[in-house]
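Lab notebook, design round three. We kept the backbone fixed and only want residue identities now. Task for the bench partner: fill in a sequence for the structure below.
Input structure tokens:
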């Protein structure tokens, strides 16, 4: 039937295409709130989103050149840039390796199960696929070595393995590379999940001329949607990979954001995922499932009735991967680890429900009308800000000014407004543009979140002491900007911010927030204390003013509108 469908137009494709199936991307029901079936990484940080916002139009207009990213990757691993090939995700790197090394009569040796795109790429290149079974425990490296001969062009190992999460040690990988080299074959080491593992064999493998290491920005960096991967090989193999691929596989904006990602420390996220892995394994066991040890950002677990567990998880809004037609995995589900406390807690509750041990959980999110965002991009600054009025006071703030970061973190914490703000400013000039523009963007984001301001308290006052200092803030979210700010700061600088700019921040905030703000120091001697007490008083008043106190949504004004 498949052959008839593909040839009914009178055009006959190659036999390799006739027997191939297109990759089917998952389709999600509207009720799915957690997509834990694709092993995707974290939500990109504000720095990465700011990098994407700041991509110059030239990066869109010009054909992209990957040499800068290849140089950065080469520097990270201590190799020549000619050995690095940036590709359209790790998938394209795998496809290029297969096209360069595989042909009729010369195929692929790998393990089973394995990342499904590897045998697919080999078959489309005209090669046969041979496998060694690896469901649980350690990979039988000796069995693989015995199978390597002149009919093998690529030996492929995925470590940590997708879909099991098991790993192969550096010594065994080097043994496989040595055996492959005797027959002119390469070892393809797919290390897409290696950031989550205890051991990273990359450095050792790069000493071998016939090893191709494939890595990606899709998992640990959370950039799956940008499709950026790379391969590191000898100059000769890297040259072959370039010769079988297109000239511009990755877009300019994607290359720019990937360069930013290399410089970001994501160790906290990785450690959170590793902790979640241990906790999920324990919970699956306590629920009666059989999880496998994992060194990746997912857990493979077996259940007596995997289909029912999968269905009930979906009923609770959680999508996980089920393997219907994969031999040896019929009773298994692969669950991605979200790396987020709220999402992980919900996953555990959903698992309890799926196993008949608890009620169906309810996914709670703040109202979308109470979230706002704003951006600003000038020759002086580039800023992105997002807020959630019904938050917990969480913050992620990077302005380049330590004292301003400190004040905005306090503003978020004591107002219970979540604030995410990232700024790149011309600090080589001074701090004025950064301070002013951050205030303007923050005010615009909160204004966006307030919408029509229906039902809010509108007016609020608060006092905040800090040791010798006492400050008072009075806020009216009237829709009309006005500010009276007297913090009585004596020093020229507080931290790395000019004292005059601290007061100017509040005035600029009031302007874009369209609020009347009165902020003054009642008493105090220490300027740091006065400035911090002022921001805390402002935070308390602002948090009270944005609260919804009229469930009917009536405007807090005799005019009927703000």
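Proposed sequence:
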């Amino acid at each position: 039937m498949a052959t008839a469908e593909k040839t009914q137009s009178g055009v006959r494709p190659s036999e390799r295409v006739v027997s191939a199936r297109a990759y089917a991307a998952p389709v999600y029901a509207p009720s799915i709130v957690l997509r834990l079936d694709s092993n995707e990484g974290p939500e990109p940080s504000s720095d990465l989103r700011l990098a994407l916002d700041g991509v110059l139009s030239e990066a869109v207009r010009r054909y992209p050149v990957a040499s800068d990213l290849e140089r950065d990757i080469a520097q990270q691993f201590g190799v020549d840039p000619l050995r690095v090939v940036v590709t359209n995700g790790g998938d394209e790197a795998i496809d290029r390796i297969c096209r360069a090394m595989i042909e009729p009569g010369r195929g692929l040796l790998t393990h089973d199960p394995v990342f499904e795109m590897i045998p697919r790429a080999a078959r489309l290149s005209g090669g046969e696929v041979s496998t060694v079974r690896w469901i649980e425990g350690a990979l039988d490296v000796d069995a693989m070595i015995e199978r390597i001969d002149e009919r093998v062009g690529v030996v492929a190992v995925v470590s940590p393995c997708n879909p099991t999460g098991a790993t192969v040690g550096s010594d065994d990988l080097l043994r496989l590379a040595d055996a492959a080299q005797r027959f002119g074959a390469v070892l393809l080491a797919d290390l897409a999940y290696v950031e989550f593992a205890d051991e990273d064999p990359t450095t050792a493998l790069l000493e071998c001329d016939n090893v191709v290491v494939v890595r990606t920005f899709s998992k640990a960096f959370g950039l799956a949607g940008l499709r950026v991967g790379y391969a590191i090989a000898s100059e000769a193999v890297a040259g072959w990979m370039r010769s079988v691929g297109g000239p511009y596989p990755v877009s300019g904006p994607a290359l720019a954001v990937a360069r930013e990602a290399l410089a970001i420390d994501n160790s906290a996220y990785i450690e959170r995922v590793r902790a979640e892995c241990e906790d999920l394994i324990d919970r699956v066991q306590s629920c009666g499932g059989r999880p496998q040890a994992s060194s990746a950002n997912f857990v493979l677990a077996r259940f007596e009735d995997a289909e029912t567990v999968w269905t009930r998880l979906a009923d609770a809004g959680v999508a996980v991967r089920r393997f219907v037609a994969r031999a040896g995995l019929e009773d298994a589900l692969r669950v991605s680890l979200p790396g987020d406390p709220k999402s992980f807690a919900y996953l555990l509750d959903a698992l309890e429900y799926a196993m008949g041990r608890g009620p169906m959980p309810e996914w709670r999110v703040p109202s979308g009308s109470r979230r706002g965002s704003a951006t600003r991009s000038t020759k002086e600054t580039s800023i992105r800000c997002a807020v959630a009025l019904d938050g917990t006071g969480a913050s992620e703030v990077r302005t380049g000014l330590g004292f301003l970061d400190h004040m905005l973190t306090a503003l978020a914490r004591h107002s219970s407004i979540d604030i995410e703000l990232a700024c790149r400013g011309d600090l080589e000039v001074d701090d004025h543009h950064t301070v002013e523009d951050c205030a303007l963007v923050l005010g615009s984001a909160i204004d966006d979140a307030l919408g029509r301001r229906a039902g809010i308290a509108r007016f609020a006052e608060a006092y905040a002491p800090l040791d010798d200092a006492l400050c008072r803030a009075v806020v009216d979210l009237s829709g009309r900007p006005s500010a009276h700010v007297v913090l009585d700061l004596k020093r020229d600088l507080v931290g790395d911010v000019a004292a005059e700019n601290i007061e100017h921040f509040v005035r600029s905030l009031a302007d874009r927030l369209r609020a009347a703000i009165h902020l003054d120091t009642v008493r105090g001697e220490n300027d740091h204390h006065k400035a911090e007490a002022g921001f805390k008083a402002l935070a308390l008043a602002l948090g009270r003013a944005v609260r919804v106190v009229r469930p009917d949504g009536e405007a807090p004004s005799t005019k009927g509108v703000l």
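Keep this in mind before ordering anything: The radius of gyration is 28 Å.
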